[in-house]
Amino acid sequence: MLTNDSMNENLNELKRVFSSLTGKEYFKNLDVGLVDLFRYLRDEIKDEKVVIALDEFQYLMQLNRGVLSIFQKIWDGILADTKVFLIICGSSCVSKHGRFRDW
Asked: InterPro entries in the record, alphabetically?
């Protein structure tokens, strides 16, 4: 689950989760951003089926307005040819006009 603490805290949590998922401790010590973190994950999981669920995604959108573009890059450029199922969900959604709406 994502939080509204900081992008760095969320990134560290993803590193911890990816370390647990792959059994590779080095994830916790990586000094990389989201895009490169997902590259490392792709390289470790190879052809495995993996489900990644990012709940409360609206917190990332509040912390970084460009995070949707970052995840589009991750999906199109890194995860497109993998067996990763990426689920992005939360209690709010951004409309075309940038306002949050409750569903």
From this structure: P-loop_NTPase
* Residue 50 and residue 21 in contact, taking contact as beta carbons nearer than 8 Å: yes
Distance separating alpha carbons of residues 81 and 90, to the nearest angstrom? 25
> CA 40, 55, 4, 7: dihedral to nearest 10 degrees?
10
Domain boundaries, the chain: 7-102
**Element housing 102 (H / E):** strand 100-102
Going residue by residue through the chain, which has 103 residues, state the pLDDT in tens, using 9 for 90 and above. 899 899 999 999 999 999 999 999 999 999 999 999 999 999 999 999 999 999 999 999 999 999 999 999 999 999 999 999 999 998 865 544 454 444 4
